Each structure stands twice: as structure tokens, then as C-alpha cells.
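In response to a reviewer's request, we include the raw inputs and outputs for one of the modeled complexes. The two entities were modeled together in a single run.
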Amino acid sequence: MPDTAIEAVGVTKSYGALRVLDGVDLAVRRGSVAALLGPNGAGKTTMVRILATLSAMDAGQATVAGYDVRRERGKVRRRISLTGQYAALDDLQTGMENLCMMAELAGMPRRAAKSRAAGLLERFDLSRAAGRRVRTYSGGMRRRLDIAAGLVGEPSVIFLDEPTTGLDVRSRQSMWSVISDLARSGVTVLLTTQYLEEADRLADRVTVLDGGRIVADGTPAQLKQQAGGHRLDLTAADRAAFGRLRAGLGARVIAADAEERKLSVATDGTAAQVRALLDEFDPSRDAVEYFSTHGATLDDVFIALTGRAAASGSGAESQVRGDTEEAAHV
Amino acid sequence: MSELTVTREAGRPLEEARRLAPLHETFTMSRRSVRLTLREVDGFLTSLILPVMIMLLFVYLFGGAIETPTEQYVDFVLPGVLLMCTGFVSALTATSVTRDMSEGIVDRFRSMGVSGGSVLAGHVVSSLVRCGCASALVLATAFLIGFRSQAGVLAWTGIAGVLAMFVFAVSWLAAVFGLLARTPEGASGFSFAIMFLPYASNGFVPVGSMPGWVQSFAANQPVTPVVDTLRGLLHGTPAGSAAWTAAAWCAGITVVAVVLSVVLFRRRTA
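The model returned the following C-alpha cells for the whole complex.
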């Protein structure tokens, strides 16, 4: 197997008149974790489905685990697993039955399938729920079982489509540790997410997708640098001060609201830089009434990278599932 | 692949494992579908209770008003009721296929290289199981309300075989509709189409009592020869070439439906 586990060049896909992917390139090193970051409708799910051989691309080329996704579909399928946004499990079967079934479909005889299933349930902390129907599982348990189901065939490349969308904070944390463990076990992971923080925590490399095109590609550190990493929000003392601050900051303003007299500036979030910034554009110390800092959101990354708000959805705060993208498949 | 390697080394050649894979897959998918069917309590009960209700409805509400060649109406109507019930229950396959297709699990099966044929065959097998239970219940009810037959073991085996053939064909056809429909509600429309066929056959009233144009439809549609075959087996009446015609219809429908459904599955999930 070559050093690149996933390689895509010029992947293009349209649904009718809607161009969902427009010449997307991607290269993922073997054994690394890569993230596709973007808002709803950016084309993340479509890209993953093409790489997982579930959708055909209109133009471009892609290999996964060293095999062409079009010409060697069967070989690709035996080496990958895909966990989608909606749990691919039978609600009326128990956790054990679901995993057993998947293991048998992966070619194992009954007994081996059973012990594999038991092992995976143990590993994902689901042993106690093994005999319960999946219908009774919480969202987080369901997602964990879903990922476990993807692992029965010991894939070398794992696709996770929005693994934490819709999960509460605690389940998200536990999902993050599951994904980190996967990465440590040596498999290659490509995940999609709307959350910068998630990409930051998990991925070695992040590709930002917007409207079917790549708008940025790099390590999380590089990306955050471009986006400012943190955001400094200022409230000017009055209209005149707002005008002075805005003029003084010039192109560094990433968001402005004259009505509320608010301005936002990218920063790395350190006290030293915030202090220096304040001193620089407010030397008389009377133009800024309040300030606050917070971590850059996907919206900030977008504004910093594209100079406009994200194409759709409300970015990082959005809890909405990928309906836009989903609708494009129907 | 530790477990897998162990078994392969233990003697089962890879070649054979490959060749048996579709069977193994179909078996696994069948067990899944049967299990889901039995646990879908509401749906399962409906497919048991409704056939019995249809049986009672025909015998007690309509039976008195219909002139038939047999002494008791129940003797005449049983094949028609059996086909209407198994047809209805088989047609439910359309709904379960549509529902399955709309969920993520089919994507997972496909990304594991499982063929569409196995997924659909699983649904067809669970339909056979459902129909077996429904038929047994209908027959039990028939005997309770006075149905009698001289059929021996061989004839009963034949009856089971004819019903299975019919259910197999209708279930595959239902799978095709299930793949065409976009919502389970849409797919359930197929049940009505299938329920209609036995009415326009010799299943409930003798064909001779129908207007001319309906007669020619009734005489040449698939349900009529199946009814004749079942009657022949149940009561020893002469069935002529009905068995062959019935077998040809069922085989023809099955072949067309299997091919169509595999093609549609591929297209639907491309």
C-alpha cells in the first residue's frame, strides 16, 4: 500500500444543475486523521460518498487504499468503512445482533463473528447494553455502536461523516476519544465536520470546503493562524469612537456592526497580544468601552478565508443536521 | 483479520469461501429480515389477523348470497382467500423494502460489498415466513368453521409448494415496487393492486357469473390458474393444465421481477 491512503484529483459532481463538488483535490497520508471542514451544503458528504464508492463522480480521479474507486470498487469496499450522519443500524436488533450480522457479512463464520462482536462491544464500552435493542440506546451509544459496526471487517481507511453532529457535550467528548484511539491504532481516518474545534482536536490536516471548492488546506495551527484562532470583540464608547477604531484597524476588521458599535478583530487569544492590540488602536484608552475574546468559530474561519459569511447554515453553532446536503442526494 | 485467517488456515479454501459468499450473505440477510419482521409486532399481528378477518368476512357475509358448484361456500372460497391473504402479506414487502432503502443501513451493506440481491432476498424470505404463518392461521380457521378436504400428505405438500411459488413471485414483484416508491406510504399502494387481482378471478365467484369482458380478463390473469391448481389439490377436482400455466406465470413474474429489482437497486443506490 502506498504512503497516501486517499488521493483525489479534480473530483467534480453535479446533481442536475447544482454543482456540488467543483474540482476537489485531496491527499491523506496513511495512518493520519484528515478533516473536511465546511458548512451544510459545502459538499462534504458527497465527497465522502464518492470516496466510499457509494456515489459516482462526473469527472476526476480518486484512489483509496491504493485502489481506484471506480475501476476497483470491490477492492476499495473491502478496505474501508463508512459511518454516516444517520446511524446505519437496525433499531429492532440488539447491539450484539447488529455487530454479529455485520461481522458475518464481512465474511466471518458465526462463532468468530460472535467473539469479534463481543470484543468490539467491550472496546466501545457497550458490553452492558449488548443485549438491549438499539431502539433503547442514547444518541452517543448509537454513534459508538455505529462506528464499532464499521470496524468489523478491520478496514484500513475509515470515513466518518459528521460523527458528532447532534450529540450532547459529554457524548461528543467520548466520541472524540474513540476517534483518537482509532487514529492511534494505525488506520487512516477521514472525517467531516462543521466544528473547527473538532477538526483542531482530531485532525492532522484540515481541508476547508465551501460551495464545492477547497478554500483552505493545512494543519489546524496554520488554519487558525489564517482565521485568527481567537476573536477579539470590541464595543466602542460612542459613534465617533467606532468610526475612529474602524478606520484605524482597516482590513483587520473581520466583522463590524455600526448599530451596536461592535467590531471584531482576529487575535491569537494571548493576553500579551490583546493588550498590545488595545494599546495600539486605542492609545488614549477611551475609545473601547468593553472587550471580550472567544475562540474562532467556523464562521470566523470563513470570513477570514473568503471575506464573507459561510454559504449556508450558521456554522459552528449550528446543531442542524446536514439536510441541505442530504436533499441533494434524493 | 485474525479470526478470518484462522478459519481459512483451518482448511476452508479461499476459493470456496468466495463461491459461497452470496449464499452466506443471503442467509445472514434473511435472518435479519425474519427477525425484524417478528419484532415489528404491530405489522406482524396485522398480517395474521387481517387474513382471518377476510376469511370470516367472505364466508359469513357474502357466502350466503353466492351460488357455487361446491356444497359449502368455504370449500369454494378457500383458495381465493389464501391467495388474497398471501398476496396482501407478500405485498407488504414493498413497504419494508422502501423503508430499508431510506435508512443508512443499506449504504453500510453496500460499502461492505453486500449485493442488492442478498438484501432483497432477505426481504423475500421474511415474506415467505410471514405468509407461512398467515396461511396456517387461515387454514386453521377454515377447518374450525367447517372446511373439509380429502387431500393427502402429497396434495398438502403440493399446496404448500404452489403457495410458496405464488408468494415468491409476488414478493419479488413487491420488491420492485418498493424500490420504485419513494415513501412507505407510496409503496403500500402496491398492496391494493395485488388485493384486487383475486377479486377479478375465479377465487370468490365462478367466472361464468361475470360480464363478458371481465370474464376474458379473469380467465387469463395469473391468479385464476393458481386458484384452479389449489382447488384441484384440495378437492381432487380436475385442474387440467392449470398447474403448468400457474407455474409459468409465477416463474415468469419471478424472473422479470428479480432482474428488474437488481437493476433498480443498483440504479437507486448509484
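As requested, we also summarize the result in words. Chain B has eleven helices and no strands. Chain B touches chain A through 31 residues (CB under 8 Å).
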